[in-house]
């Protein structure tokens, strides 16, 4: 399957009980031992070969799958005992095992390759001591033909797509797999962490959604923890509960078996952790960390867990953050030349400056590691909880009425299903005539802009009151965040098209793009040079130049020339970035990319429209038919999503990215000596309560003008409105097939 399997993202796995081994075993010997154990264990569900009649039309049917994990905190392990050491080791063996019947070409493609992290060595040396942190993966696959013949895949034929001494990533092709076959494969991992003091709930967190693209007849989830481990778990959205027991050695056993696991027809516009049952389980052997992260005990209720995590957040309002909030306030006073001048300006203006100051402090700060990964800098995010605390303390000092809001992403768990401290975010609501919001997100986020993943979400409202320099009290309430209107989240494109005289099967496009609201973020972060964002944020907050900031930081003061070169190199890649954006939009590689220009960076809401322009040439959109030319006019605005047949019936609600609107104005120059035909076919209109689509074409002299609009009114629709929403999607997709004929004049 075309998914990379690595560490805990995918693995909780099958408990091994093989005899003791040691580090002298070769990789091949260990792999053979694991294969014998996995395929030698008799589990009836993993011997199934017959698909139930009611599932005969499914693309694939998973007969059985198991996830199991065995964890030990000693220096001995039931499988592959590691050489004894005086250091406490956290050892973990995990196995994923699946048996699936392939019924069509789509499933065949899905299961044709398996990618995985084969080897990762993150061991550290401290003076003369070495602390092992290693990850090894062992894989096996066999094909069961309709005749019953078993063909074991030669795993030595894997391809190392990354082959460094301490970091190997592999891909295994299941070359003989065909429609009608059964694939039985497993992936086992062995993790050794000798620096066990770093082991915590976050590192060991595992999440499993009990639904998938294919029906599953039987699945099992088994976890074995040391008696010294502190384990916590949640079974959410109707997921069955674990069976909890202990073995003779006192190890904690968590087991769950599910039959006839639910199937969803598509992941399109879903929110898995809102709509499907899931389980989450994690552990730590450090009791202090347990108390810090959850504030509670194993087996605590959802309400207890929410209260515990909220209490942790409230506890961060202490004097240790005073230098941070004092710096923000001091910079605000400096910006306005004194506290009196702050009060003289409108509240929203002062608060926008305060927000930009904090944003500049965060995104204008660099570490020594940033110089080697400049292409990642634009994608940094602020710590929402920490910056909320800093800003709340600053607002308290300024005596500004405000609330702190706790919120979960609509793409993740609900407030009621908070599991870890990282499961929720925080923000500020300033109480003015109209509420003003401060969200601490990416570098492009504006003051008073709510990121799309939080719009419409229920929030916990905490109103802080400073009792002393080290103590805050809070009153609590609830609220719901507003949803921005579709007109606010807009893309407006002006596209000029002409056929190249030297080769009329190539077209030149001059494109002007204007984006507002939540629709601008992706292109801003992709296209804006790092140095431009840095300069603009510093201008907005009246902060120091880059060179001075680098010089004042002990980590970067000797790297000023390196940063200057790295930022200049990033800026020189402008055409490459625009080329990537064009390729994404039109699903083909452009040529002759020129005139790439950022017209307005839009990093502040005083000038909120992100604008850029570009010129390029595309192939494959014009076909010659005798003396005539047929242009794929419907693809000049890019490709619109087309529903698959399996997506037409839907029983679960629709989580869209955001409410949004689009307008494309396409002007196509008619070549001299030709006439345009087929314009009337382009006219289309569909409007209902979920949204709308319209397209029309007119001829003005020698220019064909096509105007297309698309609107999705809401960021969420109930399942009962899916047929209406499908009409809008279908109308948009239907436009992609529209063509215009340029007919040679006789």
What can you see in these coordinates?
The protein is 22% helix and 35% strand. With 746 residues, the protein is an alpha+beta fold. A hairpin with a 5-residue loop joins β20 and β21 (436-438). Mean pLDDT is 86; it is low at 1-22, 75-87, 123-132 and 288-297. Residues 1-20 form the signal peptide. It comes from Mucilaginibacter rubeus. This is DUF3857 domain-containing protein. Keywords: Signal.
Briefly, what is this?
The chain has about 750 residues and is α+β, with helices and mostly antiparallel strands. Helix 7 packs across helix 9 and helix 9 (about 345-365) packs across helix 12. This is DUF3857 domain-containing protein.
Low-confidence stretches: 1-22, 75-87, 123-132, 288-297
The 3D shape can be described as globular
Instruction: Count every helix, treating DSSP H or I runs of 4 or more residues as helices.
Output: 16
Main sheet overview = 13 strands, mixed
Query: For the CA atoms, what is the radius of gyration?
Result: 29 Å
How much helix, percentage-wise, in residues? 10-25%
Number of strands: 37
Distance between the termini: 56 Å
Give the overall pLDDT as a whole number. Answer: 86
- Based on secondary structure, the structural category is alpha+beta
- What amount of the residues lies in strands? 35-45%
């Amino acid at each position: 399957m075309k998914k990379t399997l690595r560490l805990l993202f995918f693995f909780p796995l099958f408990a091994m009980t093989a005899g003791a081994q040691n580090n002298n075993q070769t990789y091949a010997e260990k792999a053979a031992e694991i294969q014998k154990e996995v395929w030698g264990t008799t589990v009836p569900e993993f011997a199934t070969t017959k698909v139930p009649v009611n599932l005969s039309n499914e693309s694939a049917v998973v007969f059985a799958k198991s996830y199991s994990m065995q964890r030990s905190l000693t220096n001995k392990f039931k499988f592959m005992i590691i050489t004894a050491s005086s250091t406490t080791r956290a050892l973990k063996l995990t196995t994923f095992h699946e048996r699936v019947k392939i019924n069509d070409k789509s499933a065949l493609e899905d299961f044709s390759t398996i990618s995985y992290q084969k080897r990762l060595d993150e061991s550290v040396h401290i003076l003369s001591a070495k602390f092992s942190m290693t990850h090894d993966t062992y894989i096996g696959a066999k094909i069961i033909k309709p005749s019953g013949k078993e063909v074991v895949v030669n795993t030595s034929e894997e391809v190392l797509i990354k082959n460094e001494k301490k970091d190997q990533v592999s891909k295994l092709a299941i070359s003989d797999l065909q429609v009608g076959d059964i694939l039985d494969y497993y992936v086992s991992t062995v993790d050794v962490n000798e620096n066990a003091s770093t082991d915590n709930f976050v590192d060991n967190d595992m999440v499993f959604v009990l639904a998938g693209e294919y029906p599953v007849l039987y699945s099992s989830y088994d976890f074995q923890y040391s008696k010294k481990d502190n384990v916590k778990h949640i079974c959410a959205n109707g997921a069955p509960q674990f069976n909890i027991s202990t073995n003779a050695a006192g190890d904690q056993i968590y087991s769950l078996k599910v039959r006839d696991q639910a199937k969803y027809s598509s992941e399109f516009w879903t929110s898995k952790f809102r709509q499907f049952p899931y389980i989450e389980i994690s552990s730590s052997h450090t009791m202090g960390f347990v108390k810090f992260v959850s504030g509670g005990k194993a087996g605590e209720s959802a309400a207890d867990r929410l209260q515990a995590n909220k209490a942790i957040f409230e506890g961060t309002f202490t004097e240790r953050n005073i230098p941070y909030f004092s710096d923000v306030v001091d910079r605000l006073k400096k910006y306005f030349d004194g506290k009196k001048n702050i009060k003289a300006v409108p509240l929203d203006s002062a608060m926008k400056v305060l927000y930009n100051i904090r944003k500049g402090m965060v995104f204008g700060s660099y570490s020594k590691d940033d110089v080697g990964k400049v292409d990642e800098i634009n994608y940094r995010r602020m710590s929402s909880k920490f910056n909320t605390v800093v800003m709340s303390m600053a607002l308290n000092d300024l005596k500004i009425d405000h609330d702190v809001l706790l919120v979960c992403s609509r793409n993740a768990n609900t407030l009621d299903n908070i599991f870890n401290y990282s499961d929720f975010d925080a923000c500020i609501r300033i109480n003015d005539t109209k509420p003003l919001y401060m969200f601490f997100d990416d570098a492009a986020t504006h003051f008073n802009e709510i990121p799309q993943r939080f719009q419409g979400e229920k929030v916990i409202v905490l109103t802080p009151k400073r009792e002393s320099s080290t103590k805050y009290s809070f009153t609590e309430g609830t609220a719901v965040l507003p949803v921005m209107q579709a007109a606010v989240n807009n893309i407006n494109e002006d596209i000029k098209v002409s056929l190249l005289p030297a080769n009329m099967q190539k077209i030149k496009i001059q494109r002007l793009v204007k984006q507002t609201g939540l629709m601008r973020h992706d292109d801003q972060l992709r296209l804006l040079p790092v140095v431009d964002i840095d300069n603009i944020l510093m201008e907005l907050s009246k902060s120091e130049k880059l060179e001075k900031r680098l010089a004042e930081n002990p980590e970067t003061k000797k790297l000023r020339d390196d940063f200057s070169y790295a930022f200049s190199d990033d800026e020189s890649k402008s055409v490459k970035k625009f080329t990537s954006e064009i390729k994404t939009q039109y699903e083909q590689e452009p040529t002759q990319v020129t005139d790439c220009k950022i017209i307005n960076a839009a990093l502040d809401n005083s000038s909120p429209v992100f604008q850029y322009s570009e010129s390029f040439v595309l192939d494959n959109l014009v076909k010659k038919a005798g003396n005539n030319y047929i242009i794929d006019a419907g693809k000049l605005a890019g490709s619109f999503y087309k529903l698959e047949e399996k997506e037409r019936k839907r029983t679960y609600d629709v989580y869209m990215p955001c409410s949004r609107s689009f307008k494309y104005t396409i002007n196509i120059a008619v070549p001299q000596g030709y006439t345009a035909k087929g314009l009337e076919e382009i006219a289309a209109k569909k409007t209902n309560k979920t949204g709308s689509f319209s397209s029309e074409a007119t001829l003005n002299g020698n220019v064909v003008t096509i105007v297309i609009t698309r609107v999705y009114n809401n960021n969420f629709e109930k399942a009962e409105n899916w047929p209406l929403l499908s009409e809008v999607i279908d109308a948009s997709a239907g436009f992609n097939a529209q063509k215009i004929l340029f007919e040679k004049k006789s």
